[in-house]
Amino acid sequence: MSSSIAYLTSRSNFLQVSPEVPVTKQRNAEKYDTPEVFEENKKELATDLVVKAKQIEYLINSLPEPEAEEVQDDTRHDAGGRDDYRE
């Protein structure tokens, strides 16, 4: 994700967002993508992020359900383990 953010900040040119705030700096043309290429790459990055989020959600949903605390306590005590938890 950090490489996506780096791309978005380094391969675009500065745009004036307010008439009161002038653009005081420009990048060399070879340092940024054309608006069309930049838009296509933005869409691809957004799609990649959505796919990655869905993969993570699938993995999380594939995890086994946690046992109830009572079952965990019984298992710990049956195994002779110490209960180091203090309130």
The gist of it:
By secondary structure, this protein is mainly α. It contains 3 helices and no strands.
Would you write up a description of this structure?
The protein is an all-alpha fold and 87 residues long. It has one domain (2-15, 26-78). Helix content is 54%, strand content 0%. It has three helices and no strands. It has helices spanning 2-10, 35-62, 69-78. The chain is elongated and about 70 Å long. The two termini are 39 Å apart.
Keywords, separated by commas or semicolons:
87 residues; mainly alpha; 3 helices; single chain
Question: What topology emerges from the helices and strands here?
Answer:
Blueprint: H1 2-10, H2 35-62, H3 69-78
Keywords: Activator, Nucleus, Transcription, Transcription regulation
Family: Belongs to the Mediator complex subunit 21 family.
Protein name: Mediator of RNA polymerase II transcription subunit 21
Low-pLDDT residue spans? none
Average the pLDDT over all residues and give the rounded result.
Answer: 84
- By helix and strand content, what is the structural category? mainly alpha
Shape annotation: elongated
- In DSSP terms (H or I, runs of 4 or more residues), the helix count works out at 3
Proportion of strand residues: under 5%
Assembly category = single chain
Give helix % range.
40-55%
What gap, in angstroms, lies between the N and C termini?
Answer: 39 Å
* SSE arrangement, N to C: HHH
- Could you describe the largest sheet, including whether it forms a barrel? none
Would you report the number of β strands? 0
Overall radius of gyration: 26 Å
- What is the domain total for the residues? 1
